[in-house]
C-alpha cells in the first residue's frame, strides 16, 4: 500500500515541467484496501496549462511612475488616494527592513511628487491608498497580495481620532463582482521586533476573474489607509486544447461493381444514298457461268446410236 502511494506522488511530480508551465492532474491510480473499505477508481489524465505572473517591482527603478505602472504583465491603474486637488502617483520604494514579507529590495506604495519628478521618492515608507485597479494579462483563478501597514495600536496612541480601517480585495469578471477578501487593520499581524509595522495577505482562489480592485470602503468619503504592497501573484490554469481523437479505421468491403458489357460489333448497312456515291468503276463485275460448248459430230453419232438401240430394244434393262 505504501509503495502504491509513493508511486503516485512520483508520477504526480513527473507531470510538472522544469519551467513550471505545465501540470498534469494525476488520477490514474487505483487504491483498494479491505481494511479501510475504500476504493479510488482511476480516471483519465487531464493536461492543463499553468501560467503565473508575479509583480515584485524588483526589476524597476526606485521612483515615481505616474498614474499607471506595469510589472510582469500586471497593470496597476485608477489610483485614488483621497487628494482632491492633485493626482496621486504610484511609487516604487526600496527597503530591506520588511523581509521576509516583502521581497527585497522594492515594493509599491503611493504618494504625491509635484516638483521633483524623476528623483528618488522622499515620501514616507507607506503612502495613503483609497482604491486602485489591478488587471492581469488574461483571465485567472488565483491571486495573493502581501500588505504592510503602520501598527494601528501606535497610530491610536498618537491620534485619538484614529478609527479602524478595512482593506478589501474584490474580483470581477466582465464587470460583475465574483468574489472578495477583506481584513481590518486591527487584524494585521506584527512580524518584527519593533512592532511598528504589521502585515497581512489578501487572497482569492478557485474562481475566474479578469480584474481586481484593492480599496478601503471609506475611500468614497476621502477615507484612506496607509499601506505598501508587494508580491502580487496571479495564477491562471486552463486546459490545453484537446487533441483530435483518432477514429479507428474499419476496413470496408469494396462495393459491388457490375460487369462491363462490351458492345457487339454490328455490320454496317449501306444506305441507298451511300451506294449512289460509289462510282461504277469501283464495283467488281459478277462472275457468270461459262457458256456451253457446241456438240461435236461424235456426240451426235453417239446420241443417234443410243436412240436406235433403245427403239429396237437392244439394250437390256438392268
SSE blueprint and pairings:
Blueprint: H1 2-14, E1 22-25, E2 31-33, E3 38-40, E4 46-55, E5 63-64, E6 69-71, E7 74-80, E8 89-94, E9 106-111, E10 127-129, E11 131-135, E12 142-150, H2 152-158, E13 166-173, E14 176-184, E15 189-190, E16 197-204, E17 211-215, E18 225-239, H3 272-276, H4 297-311
Antiparallel strand pairs: 1-4, 2-3, 4-18, 5-8, 6-7, 7-11, 8-9, 10-18, 11-17, 12-16, 12-18, 13-14, 13-17, 15-16
Q: What can you tell me about this protein's structure?
A:
With 318 residues, the chain is mostly beta strands. The protein has two domains: 2-44, no CATH class; 52-239, Jelly Rolls, CATH 2.60.120. It contains four helices and 18 strands. It has helices spanning 2-14, 152-158, 272-276, 297-311; strands at 22-25, 31-33, 38-40, 46-55, 63-64, 69-71, 74-80, 89-94, 106-111, 127-129, 131-135, 142-150, 166-173, 176-184, 189-190, 197-204, 211-215, 225-239. Strands 1, 4, 10, 12, 15, 16 and 18 form a seven-stranded antiparallel β-sheet that branches. Strands 6-7-11-17-13-14 form a six-stranded antiparallel β-sheet, with no helix packed on it. A three-stranded antiparallel β-sheet has the order 5-8-9, with no helix packed on it. The radius of gyration is 55 Å and the shape is rod-shaped. The model is unreliable at 11-42 (pLDDT under 50).
Amino acid at each position: 500500500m505504501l509503495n502504491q502511494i509513493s508511486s503516485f506522488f512520483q508520477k504526480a511530480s513527473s507531470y510538472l515541467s522544469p519551467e513550471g508551465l505545465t501540470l498534469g492532474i494525476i488520477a490514474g491510480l487505483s487504491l483498494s484496501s479491505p481494511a479501510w473499505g475504500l476504493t479510488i477508481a482511476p480516471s483519465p489524465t487531464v493536461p492543463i496549462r499553468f501560467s503565473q505572473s508575479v509583480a515584485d517591482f524588483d526589476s524597476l527603478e526606485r521612483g515615481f511612475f505616474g498614474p499607471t505602472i506595469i510589472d510582469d504583465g500586471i497593470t496597476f491603474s485608477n489610483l485614488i488616494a483621497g487628494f482632491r486637488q492633485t493626482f496621486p502617483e504610484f511609487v516604487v520604494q526600496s527597503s530591506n527592513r520588511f523581509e521576509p514579507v516583502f521581497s527585497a529590495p522594492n515594493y509599491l506604495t503611493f504618494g504625491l511628487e509635484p516638483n521633483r519628478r524623476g528623483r528618488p521618492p522622499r515620501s514616507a515608507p507607506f503612502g495613503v491608498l483609497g482604491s486602485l485597479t489591478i488587471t492581469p494579462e488574461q483571465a485567472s483563478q488565483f491571486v495573493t497580495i502581501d500588505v504592510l501597514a503602520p501598527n494601528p495600536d501606535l497610530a491610536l496612541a498618537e491620534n485619538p481620532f484614529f478609527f479602524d480601517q478595512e482593506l478589501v480585495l474584490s474580483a470581477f469578471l466582465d464587470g460583475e463582482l465574483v468574489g472578495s477578501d477583506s481584513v481590518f487593520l486591527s487584524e494585521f499581524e506584527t512580524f518584527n521586533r519593533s512592532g511598528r509595522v504589521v502585515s497581512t495577505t489578501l487572497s482569492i482562489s478557485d474562481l475566474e476573474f479578469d480584474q481586481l480592485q484593492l480599496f478601503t470602503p471609506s475611500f468614497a468619503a476621502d477615507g484612506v489607509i496607509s499601506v505598501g504592497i508587494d508580491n502580487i501573484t496571479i495564477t491562471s490554469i486552463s486546459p490545453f486544447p484537446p487533441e483530435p481523437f483518432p477514429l479507428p479505421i474499419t476496413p470496408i468491403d469494396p462495393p459491388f461493381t457490375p460487369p462491363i458489357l462490351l458492345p457487339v460489333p454490328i455490320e454496317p448497312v449501306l444506305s441507298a444514298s451511300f451506294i449512289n456515291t460509289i462510282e461504277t468503276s469501283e464495283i467488281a463485275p459478277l462472275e457468270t457461268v461459262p457458256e456451253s460448248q457446241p456438240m461435236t459430230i461424235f456426240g451426235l453419232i453417239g446420241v443417234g446410236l443410243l436412240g436406235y438401240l433403245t427403239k429396237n430394244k437392244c439394250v437390256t434393262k438392268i
